[in-house]
From TrEMBL:
Entry protein name: glutathione transferase
InterPro entries, alphabetized: Glutathione-S-Trfase_C-like, Glutathione-S-Trfase_C_sf, Glutathione_S-Trfase, Glutathione_S-Trfase_N, GST_C, GST_Phi_C, Thioredoxin-like_sf
PANTHER family named in the record: GLUTATHIONE S-TRANSFERASE F6-RELATED, GLUTATHIONE S-TRANSFERASE RHO
One Gene Ontology term of the molecular function aspect: glutathione binding
Family: Belongs to the GST superfamily. Phi family.
Listed EC numbers: 2.5.1.18
GST N-terminal domain location: 1-82
Length: 214
């Protein structure tokens, strides 16, 4: 099998790549990395990602890291497979790219911190910092206000069709739906409907099943 993903089924970044591969209907090998044992901080993993973060991705002799960059490669290289996640029209793709940047720069800035505080730290036996949670909830709410306005005009962030701009939200969204932050999403009807829509996609449900089976 040419495609390999080295990582953890619990990693939001790895889950992002799994979701993309599933949307494209591609077969791949999942190579588990024991992060508790620090395997991601030593060889041979560092030869795949010198920053020591999961996932690392291989497609034949091509080696990549950074999940959003990996997904852009998958969407372009396998454009004729599965569900289209990008647009061929440059103007439409510009809108998709814009919202991909919003996810990475605005949404994830708060969502990742909330996931760390509310999900990951308790799993590691660490205490949640309530002050950080409250601060980041306020910041996330501001971002979701912008999303609510956008989704009142468009079914998906990038336009009429599901794209990478939506997909990239799924890992943190999935985790946060099991916390008090769900209320922040649910308070905005268009955002709430969008979340329900994309979380129900079969490709994402396969990712959830993979995590639950670990």
């Amino acid at each position: 099998m040419a495609i390999k993903v080295h990582g953890s089924a619990f990693s939001t970044a790895a889950m992002r790549v799994f979701a993309c591969l599933n949307e494209k209907g591609l077969e791949y090998e999942f190579v588990p990395v024991d992060m508790r044992a620090g395997e991601h901080k030593k060889e041979p993993f560092l030869s795949l990602n010198p920053f020591g973060q999961v996932p690392a991705f291989e497609d034949g002799d091509l080696k990549l890291f950074e999940s959003r960059a990996v997904n852009q490669y998958i969407a372009h290289a396998y454009a004729d497979k599965g569900n289209p996640l990008i647009c061929q029209d440059p103007r439409k793709m510009a809108i998709v790219s814009l919202w991909m940047e919003v996810e990475a720069q605005k949404y994830d800035a708060s969502a990742a911190k909330l996931t760390w505080e509310l999900i990951i730290k308790p799993l590691l036996g660490m205490s949640t910092d309530d002050a950080i949670v409250e601060e980041q909830e306020v910041q996330l709410a501001k971002v979701l206000d912008v999303y609510e306005a956008r989704l009142a005009q468009s079914k998906y962030l990038g336009g009429d069709n599901f794209s990478l701009a939506d997909l990239h939200h799924l890992p943190t969204m999935n985790y946060l739906m099991g916390t008090r932050v769900k209320e922040t999403f649910d308070a905005r009807p268009h955002v709430s409907s969008w979340c329900a829509d994309i979380l129900a996609r079969p490709a994402w449900q396969k990712v959830v099943a993979m995590k639950n089976n670990q």
